[in-house]
Design a protein that fits this description.
alpha/beta; 2 domains; ten-stranded mixed beta sheet; 9 helices; Rossmann-like_a/b/a_fold; UspA; Universal stress protein; Universal_stress_UspA
Amino acid sequence: MSLSAEVAAMAGTQAPIAVGVKDLVTDLAAVRMAAAEAAATGRPLHVVRAFTWPLELPPGGDGEEREQAERIVADAAAQAREWHRDLVVAPEVIDGDTIEVLLRAAARASMLVIGSDDPEGPADPTASVSFQVSARAAGPVLCVRGTGTPDGPVVVGVDGSPDAQVGLATAVEEARRREAPLVVLHAEGAACAETHAAADLTVEHRQVEGPAGRALIAASADAQLVVVGAQGDRPTPLGPVTQAVLRRADCPVLVARRRHAAAQALIAAPHRPARLGSSRA
């Protein structure tokens, strides 16, 4: 069985946790968190690296770049197995644009884990891999940034929108799984969110004034995870709050999304997906 077939078989039985890796210097934290998620949920780990062949190969360098990419994913897989001995890991280098490759991996996965772009840039979200993948993915995307506070709460913001409902439901699940308290930030003027499904959790409600993004970023300083919701039945541009949190949060950020029908189309799509700009909403 080929590696691609093996990964497809994994997705057919139990969807893996996928992690995008460029190199271990920048993405070791993402690999660590993805491996921990896979071990905690009993899922396999799919380590993915996109590869684009250079237009011109240097003399004597035939295939060298590809071999380096293969070494990177192999090293990442070995590191994941060292952390979690019983973890099933499938490393894979896939030809194609980074965003396209990660979107396809996300379509087959229960969650995609990626490293965050530089916090000070790029200013244009169309140039940001984490923004583009978070906006277009068929399922949840965990952007690893900052160190977080391991025993801190799970934080979520609500404003009465459908997106916020998705975020709240996911935050409740994450807090329960992590055995962590839940902090719910209510945007100014928003009704108090229903948290009856979290009766077994320690829940703190906070009414915030001013920009919601600023409040979530401030709360992230003492949190282990911030959850933001993205509902939609199709990829949509990220709003300013989500963009701000992805750029400035001091802990990992989970962009929660209900898996939609576009997932299977994304797996089969032969073309490169268009990039999205920022939302004015």
